[in-house]
Amino acid sequence: MGKPRTRISGADENAQRAENADAPKIPHLLRRISELFAPHKAALTVTVILVLVGAALSVIPPLLTERAFDDGLFPVGADGELLPPNLPVLAGIVIAMMAVFIVSSLLGVWQTWLTANVGNKVMGALRVRMFTHLQGMELSFFTRTKTGIIQSRLQNDVGGVASVLTNTVSSVLGNTVTVISAFVAMLILNWQLTIIALILLPVMVIAQRRVGQVRARIAAKTQESLSEMTAITQETLSVSGILLSKSFTRQRSEIDRYADENANQISLQVRQQMTGQWFFAMVGIFMSAIPAIVYLVSGWLIEGGSTDITAGTIVAFTTVQARLLFPLMALMRVALDLQTSGALFARIFEYLDLQPSITDAAGARDVRDGSALGRVEFDDVTFRYPDADGDSAPTLDGVSFTIEPGQYAAFVGPSGAGKTTVSYLVPRLYEASDGSVRFAGDDVRDLRQESLISHIGIVSQETYLFHASIGDNLRYARPDATDDELVAAARAANIHETIMSFPDGYDTVVGERGYRLSGGEKQRIAIARVLLKDPPVLVLDEATSALDTISERVVQQALDDAARGRTTIAIAHRLSTVVAADVIFVVVAGRIVERGTHAELVLADGVYASLYRQQEERPVLEA
C-alpha cells in the first residue's frame, strides 16, 4: 500500500503538494465526503451562518469608532465649531460597541463548539468504521502491509479530518467575508486612503510566502528529527531493545545516538523560531508605518480641500486596515488546504474500498452439530500465497487427507514444506486455490467464518499475551467465564499452581507480550485460554519448538491432556512430540509423501524414518 502518508503541518508547500498529488484517485470523492457530514447538516448550516455573521460583525467596530470620534468625542457644530464631547451619544456608541464584542465572542464560542463537535464526531465515526473494516480483512492483507502504514491511516489521515472543518472550512468562509467586508468598509470610509493602504500589501504577502516556505522546510526537518527520536525511543526502551542493548553493553552508544539527535532537534527548533524574525520585524514596521502614512496623506488631502476626512475616519480606517493583512495571507493557503483535505479523504476511502478476499458466501450457514463434528477433510487442495510468483511451485499441491473426529493427526516434514499452511486453511484464514477443505462434512466456503472459527482452537509457536492480568488474558477466549472455569482451564493446562505462586495470583500483570513470564508459562496460559474456549478441533502449530527440554515436557503434557476428546491437528518440528499420534502425515515440497503411525513410518524406512533418526542422533552428537 506504499509508505505512510501524513499531513505535513506547516511544512514545505511543495512537499505537501507532491504528497497530495500522490494520493489515490477516488471516484465521486466530493459526494462521498459530503455523505460523511450529512448526519450533521443542521450543525453545519448553523456553523456557516455563525461564520458569516461573525465576520460581518467584525467590521462594525471600526465604523462605530468613526462615529465615536466624530459624533461623541469631537462633535462639530453647524458652523464648523468644535463642540464639547457629547456624552449621551458617546455612551450609546460605547454600549453598541460592547454589545458587538460580546455577541461576536459568544458566536465564536458557539462556532468553535459546533465545528469541534462535528469534526471530531466525523473523525471518530471514520476511525471506528476503518478499524471495523480492517478487522474483516483477510490475514494475507496484514502479512503484506506494514503495521506502521495501517496505524498511519488510522491516526494521521483520519486524525487530520477533524481539522478540515475546524480550520479549513471556517478559515475559507471567515477570512473571505472579513477581507471583503474590510475592503468595502475602507472604500466607504475613503477610497483615496484605500489605495494608499493596499498598494504595499502584495509586497508583504509575497515576502510572507517566501519566509513561510523557508520556515516550512525547517519544520519538515524538525518533524523528521522528532520521528527519528521517537524511533530510537521505541527501539531502545522496549523490553526487547533493553535486553539487546544490555546483552551487548551498547547502552552508552544508544545514549550517544539519542543525545546527538536531541542536539539536532534543539538546533532545528532554534532555527525554526529565528527564521523570519527579520520579516516579522518588517511586518511590524510596515503595520506601524501605514497609519503614519495615512495620517500624512490625510493631512495632505484635508489641506487640498477634502472635506470627507475626519479624525474619526482616520482612526476607523487604520483600524480596518490593520485587520486586512493576515486574512489575506490565510486565504493564500486555502487552495492547498482544500487539496490536502481531499488527499486525506482519498487515502481513507482507499482503505475503506478494500474488499476482503475471504467473505461469507450468500446463504452461508453455521457449523452443524452431529457425528461429523470434528472431521477435517482436504480434497485435492492446491494453494499459492496471494503474493507468490505465478511461476513458482504451489505451497500445497494436490493434498488430500481425512482426519476423523477425535483423532490426533500430526504433520511433519522439513521447514518450508507447507505444514503450517495446512493449519491456515482449516479455519479459512487463507482460501484454497483449488480443491476443497471440508469441516464437519461441509465445505468451509459454505460456512459462516465466525461459526467456523468458534469451533477451532489455535495454539501457535509465538504466543501473544496482552499487557494485562493473567485472568484478563484467559477471559479473552470467554469474557463471561467464571473464576471456577478459569481455574479449571488453568489446572487442565498444568499452570494453576504456577499462577498461584505469584503474589497476585490471577491478577498478576504479565507485562508487554508476556515478558514477565517464561516461555513455558506463556505457552501453558495460551493452552488454558484455548481450553476455556473448549473447541472440538485443536490446531497446534509447533507449540513447543521454541521451548527448552524441561519446559517442552511440561507443555507437551498439557497439550496431550488438552487433546483428549478433540480432533487435534499438530504441526510438529520435533518428532518426539508426536510419536503417539493416531496418524502422521509427512509433507515434502507441498505434497503428502507418507502417512501412517509412528511405528509404521519407521518400519517403512522412508522420509519420516530418516528425519527421526537425525533428531535422535543430534543429542548424542551435541553431547
Automatic annotation (TrEMBL):
Subcellular localization, as worded in the UniProt entry: Cell inner membrane
InterPro entries referenced in this protein's UniProt entry, alphabetically: AAA+_ATPase, ABC1_TM_dom, ABC1_TM_sf, ABC_transporter-like_ATP-bd, ABC_transporter-like_CS, P-loop_NTPase, Type_1_exporter
Keywords: ATP-binding, Cell inner membrane, Cell membrane, Membrane, Nucleotide-binding, Transmembrane, Transmembrane helix, Transport
Main location: membrane
Keyword Metal-binding among record annotations: no
Domain ABC transporter, chain residue ranges per copy: 376-614
GO cellular component: plasma membrane
GO biological process, one term: oligopeptide export from mitochondrion
PROSITE patterns with a match to the protein in the record: ABC_TM1F (PS50929), ABC_TRANSPORTER_1 (PS00211), ABC_TRANSPORTER_2 (PS50893)
Domain ABC transmembrane type-1: 46-340
MF-aspect GO terms: ABC-type oligopeptide transporter activity; ATP binding; ATP hydrolysis activity
Regions crossing the membrane: 42-64, 89-110, 154-173, 179-207, 278-297
Keyword Transport: yes
Membrane-topology descriptor: Multi-pass membrane protein
Domain of life, source organism: Bacteria
UniProt family annotation: Belongs to the ABC transporter superfamily. Siderophore-Fe(3+) uptake transporter (SIUT) (TC 3.A.1.21) family.
Protein name as annotated: ABC transporter ATP-binding protein
Organism of this sequence: Agromyces mariniharenae
